Amino acid sequence: MAALDVPPPACMRDPEIEAFADGAGRFFERAATPERIARWREAGQVEPAFWREAGEAGLLGVSIPTEYGGAGGDFRHDIVAVEQVGKHGVEGFALSLHNVIILPYVLAHGTEEQKKRWLPKLCSGESISAIAMSEPGAGSDLQAIRTTALKDGNGYRINGAKTFISNGQIADFIVVVAKTDPEAGGRGVSLLVVETDQAEGFRRGKALDKIGNDAQDTSELFFDDVWVPSENLLGLEEGQGFRQLMAELPRERLIIAVGSIQTMERALETTVEYVKERKAFGQRILDFQNTQFVLAECKAKATVAKVFVNDCIQRQIEGTLDLTTAAIAKLRATDTEWEIVDACLQLHGGYGYVNDYPIARMFRNSRVQRIYGGSNEIMKLLIARSL
User: For residue 178, which of 227, 217, 219, 129 has the smallest C-alpha distance?
Assistant: First the structure.
């Protein structure tokens, strides 16, 4: 029985969407076995072969038009794919980054030639993507980045360092946020694509040792006089990077909120199962009034969050989701996720601190939700500007 009694939004109640969810679930059950996931966690990354398997299964580029190698779906299919990743515990597989963030940049802002050149390989899994925004001295404040991409002949010479880059160890298609005009502030930011197999001077730093998301490689990247041709400037117009980034942020923040809702549900389901079986002082943990009150509060909070996020999904499909509402969804969903996972871990007692129990991994993985996609402090600033 589902932990939350909240029906999906109207846009998701479609037989074709339900069939896609069923097919995606079967793929992960078959291809992402517990043994394989354990190997990914030990290695600190999902091997490129799995990306190609996912591409063959039609899970990459699901909202990309068929003429560019995608499945021709829409954001609903992206949601389903991301939900199935979470449901099957494949948190190292950065499908949301690839499908919901990077490929839409290319589709929305790339030229026709760029879309035909890059998207088919990204949809097949032949190319694995990453986006290089954060730097050692610049996180949420993208106008403070120091990486430059200065004109050099019929191309650009990129210099700088990036950090906290998901897929950094395995990506061969990297969208780099750089300043083509260092004196112009936000108006001088551009997005350039580095194809690593052709990039002399590009190097990967160490994979960062994180407290969660064990199978997700997160890395430092270095660009030392890396030359890229002019046709690798996304959209072929300098100074559009900040606008391109802002245009795609509502969808990015919404998909983070969607992931938070799923984690809340999984945390509640696994905790209810645990407290029904575990006994103390001669009775089930569930029979204590404190346990019932804690779980009731968690369910109430998660229900409110899910209803709101479902409304945001409907708005996104209708094209009316604005930056402020997306920021509210990201802020409230990730904060609530953390509260609920923490409360559920407490009900596990000492076992909640043991990594063999799913709640422990959820606890570690949940912490970053309030940081990436723009920290929650930045979300508050964005929301305050609307007052």
Answer: 227
Other CB atoms within 10 A of residue 187 CB: 15
d(CA 37, CA 261) in angstroms, rounded, equals: 22
HEC secondary structure over 179-230:
ECCCCCHHHHEEEEEEEHHHCCCEEEEEECCCCCCCCCCEEEEEEEEEEEEH
Q: Tokens 């730097």 — which residue?
A: 135
* Catalytic residue list contains 252: yes
User: CA of 186: how far to CAs of 180, 242, 251, in Å?
Assistant: 10, 6, 21
Kindly compute the dihedral angle of the four CA atoms of residues 208, 210, 213, 215, in this order, to the nearest 10 degrees: 40
Q: What separation in angstroms does the CA of 287 have from each of 266, 277, 296?
A: 21, 11, 13
Tell me the two tokens of residue 164.
Answer: 């906290």
Phi/psi zone of residue 281: left (φ > 0), alpha (ψ -120 to 50 degrees), beta? Answer: left
pLDDT confidence of residue 104: 95
Residue 277 belongs to a domain: yes
End-to-end Cα distance, the chain: 41
Look at residue 2 and tell me if it is in a domain: no
Active-site residue (options: 83, 220, 238, 252) = 252
Neighbours of 301 (CB within 10 A): 18
Q: What is the largest CA-CA distance in the chain?
A: 78
- On whether both 207 and 122 belong to a single domain, the answer is no
| 264 and 232 assigned to the same domain | no
Instruction: Show which of 197, 214, 239 is a domain's final residue.
Output: 239
Closest among 238, 272, 253 to 344, alpha carbons compared: 272
Which pLDDT tens digit goes with each residue over 257-316? Answer: 999 999 999 999 999 999 999 999 999 999 999 999 999 999 999 999 999 999 999 999
Question: b/e per residue, 138-173, with b = 16+ CB within 10 A?
Answer: bbbebeebebbbeeeeebbbbbbbbbbbbbbbbbbb
Q: Which residues contact 56 (CB under 8 A, 6 or more apart)?
A: 124, 125
What are the tens digits of pLDDT across the range 229-255?
999 999 999 999 999 988 888 899 999
Helix, strand, coil abundance in the chain, percent, nearest 5: 55, 15, 25
